[in-house]
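Consider a protein example.
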Amino acid sequence: MKIMLGADHRGEASIKLLADRLKSLGHEVTVQSDCHGATCDYPERAYGVAQSVAAGDAERGVLICGTGIGMSIAANKIKGVRAAVVHDELTAQLSRSHNDANILCLSADLLGQRLIEKIAEIWLATEFEGGRHARRVRKIGAIESGQDPAGVKE
């Protein structure tokens, strides 16, 4: 799978280790992170990764900052992006199977590296279930287009 990764200064060390792990699993990984020890702002990294996913240049994205929250807020501003903050294996699985999340947002400060890697592996391996969940994802798309989601039917 083609995956774009990005991190701010607080997630830079974690994203580099995650990139190595994902490459070892056979994924094609690009890392958008060049803080070099200096402060870099999460909205810029979120924008770059989200644009790549929305444009189809990457199948999925992973973003890491201090909490994952800022990355998620910024990434979700891009049309076509469904970025989910995930803190454990269950929310990793559900964000994919129920919400078809295409960007995973993680906390460098709250999660250890082993858990970050486990969450990412589960998230990447989980398929979207479709069915009733597809209707709900279409409703998210309606909101994104400025429409009332109540108008979306089967």
The helical segments are 12-24, 42-55, 69-75, 89-97, 113-125, 132-144. The first strand starts at residue 2 and ends at 7. The mean pLDDT is 94. Strands lie at 2-7, 28-32, 60-65, 83-85, 103-107.
